[in-house]
């Protein structure tokens, strides 16, 4: 850097390196355009008549969305209830309990709430629908409806490498995450598609009051990345990604098919509009069940075998389940497979010669 | 980008572009080192025996710090009170009211609280000390003490371009902001120096639950920037910055010295350990008072003269005050000066020839 350039940092910074862009928002309009284009080429979401909101990861947008939806609760004195399906992404519960707002209470299981008759059309309810679901990779629909129900859709995993793209989603409030689109988790970038202007404005205020918008370095990098992705209609990255995860699932399925002790989630193949064929689901996580009655803590059984998963109870489920991540480096995955083989090999009823072909 | 590189984005991303660095934290240790070095060369803060925490701007760290301090309130049923001095940075109030936590209530004026006798050593109190203060640029000290008082120091403006560096601050919890250090507001980067491990860990959890850490693109950029700054002991950027703001204050003081209608804050010069001389304060904002009894809304009077400031009531003060920003581009500043001249020129008792020398 020359001296003049260096000295110019400060004063030009006060203008051009501001919190906001020239239109007074913290959102790069160029990046917004590329994101709309991305959804259009992938066919996973309708972006017409939607506001696009940016956040420091879907993490921040989740908090913003739940906050905004809980504030529409003006006429009722009791806090809005946050509901979802079991197993669920732990962040929903963690955030709700951590913020400890007067307007929100984490309640958990939407189906149980419905059956209990507590869905009285008076208590405000926010249902989070994660589709494909974390941890089990299944496509999900809302359980609740009614005038008192607001639905928040977390579509972080609704990309061709993880799931058939069955239709373009067309919901009131949908969230997406760069970390699951291109893998850049460390960039902390997510976005939301929001139909209702009042909800959008409340979310925008949340983002401003918690971080004054989203890093411009990040927005610039994401713009470059997504331009490459949409450049060939996503073909290269999604074909590569799908191929990679599919191969991992084939390996995994082979191992688990020899086991009577452990089982994997199964999901029926569906037609994928993106790849124009019926295809398997290839979720980012294996949701493993320990089938033996005495194996009550599946996490500990895997940990003893040097495999670190996440305990099913983190997802509001039983300890009989453990989540294993498949979206790691190839080295980490190979290590996982080596350890899994040892674990299944030691089951009494598995013939050792079966392992030759994995 | 070659095809192999592009395809590698996805899977390598799942490993190397993770939320966390290799040590399991979201904090670049290289950047942490440069920040400690920066405080040491500027002499504005002691960093020994401190945890360094990163946030998406001081905005996020403020929320994290207030949250962490309010949670130490376990034995008491009433919420902690958030206190500060008037005039204060509006964000403190806005955040506290927006999050509407069961553990915190914004109360406002620390001196009034002290005098009211409500400082009963039982109710937990968090005092925010902003030094130099936003909006008036004055150095501040805590008003309250006692076993029930936690103090949070916002040192965003404690840099040589804005203030004499009178001593290295050595407090329990201090916050700093890149936007006021180098001007890169849009990067959304701030940091805190935290003495107490339990408070640090609560803040860390807040950052994880609201954004899963801080953008790596940002951290990389900030590392490059601050390496340049510490490279010459900050000499070039702080001399340039101080020179620029000083010149702006000289112009401003000339204009206001001709006015009987408006007055500016005054702060006595102090010895600056960084520049090794007694020097004027050169705050980032002018805190203007409308002196005429009939000028009850100073913001509106400036607005009518095409000068957009911020109303004093935003800072918990009277509408008789308005805050004008001096940390804008040279063009914006020149525009401000042109409009100010017109405004003061039209005061009846100012001779027009005085304006020739500004």
From TrEMBL, chains A, B:
Positions of the Alliinase C-terminal domain: 1-344
InterPro entries: Alliinase_C, Ethylene_sulfur-biosynth, PyrdxlP-dep_Trfase, PyrdxlP-dep_Trfase_major, PyrdxlP-dep_Trfase_small
GO terms, molecular function: carbon-sulfur lyase activity; transferase activity
Keyword Glycosyltransferase carried by entry: no
Top-rank taxon, per record: Eukaryota
A Pfam family this chain is assigned to: Alliinase_C
UniProt keyword terms in alphabetical order: Pyridoxal phosphate, Transferase
Family to which the UniProt record says this protein belongs: Belongs to the alliinase family.
Name of protein: Pyridoxal phosphate (PLP)-dependent transferases superfamily protein
Underlying gene: TAR4
